[in-house]
Specification:
Length: about 100
């Protein structure tokens, strides 16, 4: 039992370090995908890995929306609506890029 705990801790620490450095994550297919340059990677409420070209925010409905501009800002205004550099679009798995 102790071997399994050590192994799991090792895997978690490796994943944390690699994801933090590379802005990448493992998707449901087991592939490592990364945010595009200047973009964001996260998981949605269904646990799917999604990306945006710029920064992303979560709106009240739980939807993740992102700036269409690489490195572009996304914020929630005083009315609770997302405001983004360029246009706000939904984060998508299709925006993620394969790890190199």
């Amino acid at each position: 039992m102790r071997k399994y705990v050590v192994f799991i801790c090792l895997l978690l620490s490796m994943a944390t370090v690699s994801f933090a450095k590379g802005n990448c994550a493992q998707n449901s297919s087991g592939n490592i995908v990364c945010a595009p340059p200047g973009g964001t990677i996260t998981t949605n409420k269904n646990g799917d890995v999604v990306c945006g070209k710029g920064n992303c925010v979560i709106i009240n409905s739980g939807l993740i929306v992102c700036s269409t501009q690489p490195g572009g800002n996304a914020v929630i205004n005083g009315e609770g609506k997302a405001v983004c550099a360029g246009v706000c679009i939904s984060a998508s798995p299709n925006t993620c890029v394969g790890a190199r």
